[in-house]
Design goal:
By secondary structure, the protein is of the alpha/beta class. The chain is built from nine helices and ten strands. A ten-stranded mixed sheet has the order 1-10-9-8-7-6-5-2-3-4, with helices on both faces.
Length: 323
């Protein structure tokens, strides 16, 4: 249903989702585990929540699958992977990308789903139409209620294109209707809204003001437009906004999630970290709003504590609190 036709409440992030997460990592792990219910479901004794990352590999260890696994560890969940692409990458740039075959992507998901089980999914770098089709087929192997978080990775921190322009339509058509939460930054939200408008100009989603989003910082309008494409929840992250405020929209309410900006920090992998924390918290049983609040804070802290001395370019975030 077009969100522009609904009456939407806007408010700030409630205090009850502000959970302390001390560094170093073991303090975080203990607290995250204690805040869940370990007596049943994915937190049953001997089996923590198990979360699958479907994404690309960053050889520099800052983003992609590597960042996902660090975030999962910081949240006290067991991380699993289905790698979609291998990148030759460091803090300065991406020098090569090779896609994994669609058959192997499906096989990776099938292997972990049949044996371990999947309590939540985070999807990151996809790259091509063939990869998106394989990931969509893979999701059919999971239980229907499995929460899926999609980080629509389009460009690396160094500026390399990681999603073919021609693949945007497939992403919207094949994945968005099956996603619990999508977490674009402002440029990604604009690109997806523009692609949707270009694909169906006569029926493009309206925004809260009744017009297509422009190039301004209209994160609320963009959240409405993307929500109309099928995901249950949209979180437009605030890293590229004038104020570092995430915008949460679930079809009935807009919630602003404020945070600090740390210009002296290191941000490589911040988007991957945010979406992975969000998926992990959904696996623990949080509501999407609770999970988005924890993800906002942990990603911000990871930038603040980032490893600026690693590499000559944008250093990696530090979600594990290494000193």
């Amino acid at each position: 249903m077009c969100a522009a036709r609904q009456e939407v409440a806007t408010r700030s992030c409630p205090d009850d989702i502000d959970r302390d997460t001390d560094h170093p990592a073991m303090h975080k792990l203990a607290e995250m585990a204690a805040s869940s219910n370990p007596g049943s479901g994915p937190g049953a004794v001997g089996r923590p929540p198990c979360v699958l990352a479907i994404a690309g590999s960053d050889s520099g260890g800052g983003a992609g699958i590597q960042a996902d696994l660090k975030a999962f560890a910081a949240c006290g969940v067991h991380g699993m992977t289905a790698i979609t692409a291998i990148t030759a990458q460091n803090t300065v740039g991406v020098s090569a990308v090779e896609a994994i075959s669609p058959e192997l992507i499906v096989a990776q998901v099938k292997a972990v789903a049949e044996d371990i089980g999947v309590d939540a999914v985070k999807i990151g770098m996809l790259g091509t139409v063939a990869t998106i089709e394989a990931v969509a087929a893979s999701l059919d192997l999971l239980a229907p209620a499995t929460p899926v978080v999609l980080d629509p990775v389009m460009v690396s921190e160094s500026g390399a294109e990681l999603l073919e322009t021609s693949a945007r339509g497939a992403l919207m058509r094949l994945l968005l209707p099956h996603v619990r939460v999508i977490t674009p930054n402002l440029p990604e939200a604009r690109a997806l809204a523009a692609a949707a408008s270009a694909a169906a100009p006569a029926t493009a989603p309206e925004t809260a003001s009744g017009t297509a989003p422009d190039d301004g910082d209209d994160a609320v309008a963009l959240a409405h437009a993307l929500h109309a494409l099928g995901p249950e929840v949209v979180v437009v992250t605030g890293g590229h906004r004038e104020q570092a405020v995430d915008v949460f929209f679930d079809g009935s309410q807009v919630v602003e999630l404020p945070g600090e900006r740390y210009p002296g920090g290191a941000a490589h992998g911040s988007g991957c970290t945010h979406s992975s924390v969000l998926a992990a918290r959904l696996a623990w049983g949080d509501t999407p709003l609770e999970a988005a609040g924890v993800a906002k804070r942990m990603a911000s802290e990871a930038v603040r504590d980032g490893l600026a001395g690693v590499g000559a370019g944008a250093g990696p975030v530090n979600v594990l609190g290494m000193t």
